[in-house]
Amino acid sequence: MEKRIINPWQWQNERSYVQAVEVKKPEGTLYISGQTATNADGKSSIEDMKTQLIESLANLEKVITEAGYKCENIIRLNVYTTSTDELFSCFDIFQNWITRHNIKQTSTLLEVKSLFETLKVELEVTVVK
Fold this sequence. Notes:
Layout: E1 2-6, E2 20-24, E3 29-35, H1 49-66, E4 74-81, H2 84-89, H3 91-100, E5 106-111, E6 121-128
Parallel strand pairs: 4-5
Antiparallel strand pairs: 1-2, 3-6, 4-6
């Protein structure tokens, strides 16, 4: 697989995303359903945003690795949240996770009225191999 990052500007770098990713010759593409703070029994978290973000990232990483892919090859990561204010109060957790895995992904962040049950954040991802 070949990846090329297209960034005509630099300002997005401190926001932990890129403007575009071109992928040539992928061996596979993994489209992942929105990952949330849901435990192994399918129970939705009732915890705060920070705790839910940490659990959502852990669940996302589990799906990626069990599928035989690597987090560093995430090319699209969309974030849905019920409160951008709450999410931004712990956004460093997200940014540190992105940095730790050396991810250069396109992203969209949307505040939504609600998510399933008691959930506050959902991560939707595309990964290539």
